[in-house]
Amino acid sequence: MSTAALTVVLQEPPSLARLYLNAAATAAAHRLRKRPAATRVPEAVHELPALTVDLEHLTSFQRLLHATVRDELPSAYVHTLAFPVSMSVMTRDDFPLPLLGLVHLENSVEHHAAIPFTLPLTVRAHAENLAGHRAGTTVDMVAEVSDSVTRELLWRGVSTYLAKGVFFPGLDKPGTGGRNGERAREPFVPPTPTALWRLGQETGRDYAGVSGDFNPIHLSSLSARALGMKTSLAHGMYSVARVLAESGHDSDAGTRWHVGFEAPVYLPATVAVSLQDAQDPGGEWTGTAFQAWNGKSARRHFHGRIEPLGR
């Protein structure tokens, strides 16, 4: 992001429900375009200063995700604070991709320091790395959360999204070096699960209530079918938040985690999960590999790793 980028200061946390409605209203305009209107991301940073956390809301999030109730913010909860600011960038008129229909490919997060719920936070978000993909175009949404007083960086997340069927002249073509153009997947052989999740139809609505993400594809079969899904599906970040909670490292300072999403979790579902810890010869934790899959079809939903920063 250029140092000359425009900073847009938000007066209050953006409403995700309102942003989704705005996105729906502009979706028809995107469909009518023969080509995308722009070939670069906005030169703008959106900033929300002095954000405070509601303790009751935080506790509801922790309980839903089966996390230990504590005063420090879980890493996935910080994502819920940053996501509306990122969304406000993605609904700008000069954002080149249609918001509705974007596929969440992966997340990479660095959790630098413990974040007490009493700490006032500043959230900044911008878009970068518009790139070619064999199925369309990808973009990275970068969000940073810092102490509003000291400006210390506490948390940084990069979410990668794919706009299927949207191709830009001049970007890398499939098979010619595009970032995600020809990434091969290794065959998946399910390991012995360490947990089994039984997710009901209400899972999407429950997580929407604690995350604010009321994307219609998660709320009901009816609203999901209206957007081309066969039924509602669980939020990808619900799954990640639950894995982080079960790992015991969801609020740890000095950690990083990465997740790659492969197949959606259609509700209701039974999800098999594996978490495997690793240690060095001295017994120090060096990381936790995780993956989840459909217990019947053995199709993998996501996989990733949590590890100390600096490794």
Briefly summarize what is shown:
By secondary structure, the chain is of the alpha+beta class. The chain is built from six helices and eleven strands. Strands 1-2-4-5-6-3-8-11-10-9-7 form an eleven-stranded mixed beta sheet, with helices on one face.
Defining key terms:
311 residues, alpha+beta, Thiol Ester Dehydrase, Chain A, eleven-stranded mixed β-sheet, 6 helices, 11 strands, 23% helix
- Counting H and I runs of at least 4 residues, what is the number of helices? 6
- Biggest sheet details: 11 strands, mixed
Radius of gyration: 19 Å
Q: Which CATH top level class fits?
A: Alpha Beta
* CATH topology grouping: Thiol Ester Dehydrase, Chain A
Mean pLDDT: 89
- The CATH superfamily label reads Hotdog Thioesterase
Helix content: 10-25%
List segments where confidence is low: pLDDT < 50 over at least 5 consecutive residues. none
What structural class results from the helix and strand content?
alpha+beta
Backbone shape: globular
Question: Which strand order do you get reading across the main beta sheet?
Answer: 1-2-4-5-6-3-8-11-10-9-7
Any idea what the CATH architecture is? Answer: Roll
In total, the number of domains comes to 1
Percentage of residues in DSSP E strands = 25-35%
Annotation, overall tally of beta strands: 11
User: H/E series, N to C?
Assistant: EHEHHEEEEEHHHEEEE
Q: Give the termini separation.
A: 26 Å
Protein name: MaoC/PaaZ C-terminal domain-containing protein
Family: Belongs to the enoyl-CoA hydratase/isomerase family.
Domain MaoC-like: 201-276
InterPro entries: Fatty_acid_synthase (IPR003965), HotDog_dom_sf (IPR029069), MaoC-like_dom (IPR002539)
